[in-house]
Amino acid sequence: MLLTSCREDPEEKSKACCSKETAEKVPGERSGESLFHLDQEWTTQRGKTLRLEQFRDRIVVAAMIFTHCESACPRIVSDMKRIEASLSEEELRKVCFLLLSMDPERDSPARMNAFALEHGLGPDWTLMRSSASSTMEMANVLGVRVQKLEDGGFDHSNVIHILDGEGVIRYQHHGFSEDTEPLVLAVREFLDSE
Amino acid sequence: MSHRLAHLGLALILALAAHGQQRPGARQMVRVQGGAYLPLYSGKTGKTEVKAFEMDIFPVTNADFLRFVQDYPEWSRSRIKPLFADSNYLRHWQGDLAFDPAIARSPVVNISWFAAKKYCECQGKRLPETAEWEVAAKASQTQADAGSDPAYYQYVLNWLTKPSPAVLPRVGSTFRNYFGVYDLHGLVWEWTWDFNSALSTGESRGNASLDNTLFCGGGALGSGNMTNYASFMRFAMRSSMKAKYCVPNLGFRCVK
Fold first, then answer.
1. Is B202 part of the contact surface with chain A (CB cutoff 8 Å)?
2. ipTM of the complex model
3. Which candidate, B161, B174, B54, places its Cα nearest to that of B106?
4. A28 and chain B: CB distance < 8 Å anywhere?
5. Is residue B226 within 8 Å of B232, Cβ to Cβ?
6. How do B35-37 and B48-50 pair as beta strands?
7. Class level of CATH domain A32-193
8. Hey, how many other C-beta atoms are within 10 angstroms of the C-beta on B211?
9. Is A34 an 8 Å CB contact of chain B?
10. Are B152 and B236 in contact (CB under 8 A)?
11. CB–CB of A37 and B211 under 8 A?
12. CB distance B184 to B137 below 8 Å
């Protein structure tokens, strides 16, 4: 029941392949390392409120960014798009791409939506922001270091995270990727073990 | 058997709770006037203006934290999620609700950032920002900003070069500063809200600039004040920490 596609319209939802598997999973058997333990609400670029648990049974490729970022964040997004392009349509049904804002003050849903359009991010992409407190907590569970700068920007770690269907961080890539193949292989490995 | 243990445990809890309540001004806060804070590695441009705030006069003690764990058992040693603390969480306690009564009024340590944050939120408070903590910690007994007082600087440095004692002293055992805050130096290190803004890494030692593929470091232009070795030590400590780490000489206090 928790399971929806990353895509939010009902038609896409019914396309989701794994609702049966969800029903078979025992709720409560969550790993102590699961990010689903975070008591947080996030708002997406479509203005929808959700909790991370929404991504249960999905492989999530995630990064923390801010949309005013001019150098590093577009690189991270482009690395994630290369991962997306390497996956088959079949595989993509169980994969979500998640961009978490480290700049909740400025990254309004409208702003995030404009960023998604500008970067050609499809329906499997979710951009979202939360409160300052939840944002810091998220940075800390992901091990992302963030320093706010005077000009409103941030110094920050560049990391791509891969979460399994239980919300556990299974793979982290620090820095930019000349070669996204290891990340793609990691996604496939976790898809197979779902 | 288990009943008896439960009774013993309860007796210990009650004794500790009573002990805590006798403490004069246990939750007392004082006002810290604002000021400028120049973070390390910020160059001349990164000056932060800190607004006035209220700060706990003491670090949070074991007795304080016990009350919190009683109210929120999901933060007890046996129930805390590994997401929120490593295996050293409260390791100096004997169990979920038990520790040597001799340390009731010593600062709680072996505590993760997540637990410290939650504790403060449950008191209607928050963790201090690094800039706030540093502004409060600039105060000697007599001056709000003792940054240029060599004697004060030497005092702080002396503590940093001493190993932590096996049993931590009680809170309030070091000096009371200009604002009325105790123990900012001389007892334990303390978590700050944004400890993770310290972006120096092993990769950057060579030239104190950030590895640009690992970090987007447009603002890193070298240190603002490299002569202050004590603040450099704190910076290094913060940059080496992760939020789930629990270490035996790191505690916290709250502000609002």
1. no
2. 0.83
3. B174
4. no
5. yes
6. antiparallel
7. alpha beta
8. 15
9. yes
10. no
11. no
12. yes
The residues, any chain, with a CB within 8 Å of residue A98's CB and separated by 6 or more, are A55, A60, A61, A62, A63, A125, A126, A128
> B 130-159 residues with CB below 8 A of A?
none
Q: Where are the domains of chain B?
A: 29-56+82-91+106-251
What is the rounded (10 degree) CA torsion for B72, B74, B75, B76?
100
Q: What is the rounded CA–CA span in Å between residue B251 and residue B246?
A: 9
pTM for this prediction: 0.83
Does B196 contact A148 at a Cβ distance shorter than 8 Å? no
Tokens of A28: 């409560």
Find where tokens 């995630």 sit.
Answer: A62
Size of interface A-B (CB pairs under 8 A): 87
Q: Is there a contact between A145 and B45 if contact means CB atoms under 8 Å apart? A: no
Closest CA to A57 of A34, A80, A76: A34
Q: What is the pLDDT of residues A21-61, one digit of tens each?
A: 333 344 444 689 999 999 999 999 999 999 999 999 999 99
Cβ atoms of B238 and B40 within 8 Å: the answer is no
| Extents of the domains making up chain A | 32-193
Chain A residues closer than 8 Å to B114 by CB: 137, 140
**CB-based contact B198 A147, cutoff 8 Å:** yes
Mutate to test the interface with B, among A37, A155, A160, A172 (most CBs of B within 10 A): A155
